[in-house]
Amino acid sequence: MPSMQTNVAPSFRKTTETFAAGAKGLSQHYFVSPEIFSEEQKKIFSRQWVLVGHQSQIAQAGDYLTAEVAGESLIIVRDKRGAIHGFYNVCRHRGSRLIENRSGQSAAIQCPYHAWTYALDGRLIGAPHMDEVLGFDKADYSLHAVNLSMWEGFIFVNLADSPAPLAEWFKPLAGKFSRWNLSTLRSAKRIEYDVRANWKLIFENYSECYHCGGVHPELSKISPYDSAENDLTEGPFLGGFMRIAKGKSLTMSGNACALAMEQFGEEDFRLVFYYSIFPNMLLSLHPDYVMVHQLFPQSPERTLIFCDWFFNPEAFKRNDFDPDDAVEFWDMVNRQDWHVCELSQQGISSRAYEPGPYSARESIPAAWDREYLRFMK
Ligand code: FES
Ligand code: FE
């Protein structure tokens, strides 16, 4: 395992190093306009790869989850051979929604209306009385599939007709997170947050720690707000690391809460990595756990956020496993963040709002805005 010095340090930059004056926040209509919101749904969420879960969350045959992407309800399901499929949640008979739950387990997918039944791989296998219809062939009525692909165990969907492969999209990150073995992780906990703020405010908030001293006193004690260094500074993947005080962990108790993700060197235990992945994933890599936020914009002023805490699968078997120590810590920090995002939303909605200048410690939110605007062209 290479040490941190040889592995990453040379390419990281202090957030304050290079920052041209002049970058400002986005103007008001980006946060309040229903037209902008539907444009985002069309140009971003209907065309890009969107995170909907992790393979460990549908570990057994028949496990499913549903997700809403750009107004479309989707079913993500594992079939009997272990393959993961994505389907539109739309019956091929008269269009009924098939599954209402957000997750569950089922041997097949049966429509609640007239009981047409689909196998876990989407084939129509039962359609009462349809044999009385001349020429009807079940083979013509499989569920409509949605593009689905995996990256490091995370499940992404794409509503575009023929999107560029997910592997291509993630090429710039190839091997970057291999030390965390992301595909093997297991989630111990999910918390859902309904935040009264525009989804872009959540990204901008995640991308800087200018606010940390005041908003996150507990976090700042363990991880100094001015210790940020970034290695991804332009494009759809942005972020870097912050330092953790020696012997500490980002938990309520301040102690490690689980078996480490990997045989890290001493220096690696002192770092937490934060990356935003356009357009709906926040990836936070700690020495003892990985936290992932999925963002689902509901309206200009409202965002649904699913936060999952993942651990080394070996950690679950041990007595020292205390996931709540991490969950409670970040639940507190999350709520502190959502509160200021909601305050931002309220102020930005005012007639008095005009975009203010970003500080030198907000180079990543400024880069995120630039990337967002590229997608909105
Ligand atoms: Fe699904 Fe009729 S709408 S079986
Ligand atoms: Fe924060």
How would you portray this structure in words?
By secondary structure, the chain is of the alpha+beta class. It folds into two domains: 10-47 and 180-375, Alpha-Beta Complex (Naphthalene 1,2-dioxygenase Alpha Subunit, Chain A, domain 1); 55-162, 3-layer Sandwich (Rieske Iron-sulfur Protein). The protein is built from nine helices and 18 strands. It has helices at residues 4-7, 29-32, 34-45, 166-169, 199-206, 212-215, 217-222, 323-348, 363-376, and strands spanning 13-14, 50-54, 63-69, 72-78, 84-88, 103-105, 109-110, 117-118, 124-126, 147-151, 154-158, 186-195, 229-232, 237-243, 271-277, 281-285, 290-299, 302-311. The strands form four sheets. An eight-stranded antiparallel beta sheet has the order 1-13-14-15-16-17-18-12, covered by helices on one side. Strands 5-4-3-6 form a four-stranded antiparallel beta sheet, with no helix packed on it. A three-stranded antiparallel beta sheet has the order 2-11-10, with no helix packed on it. The radius of gyration is 22 Å and the shape is globular.
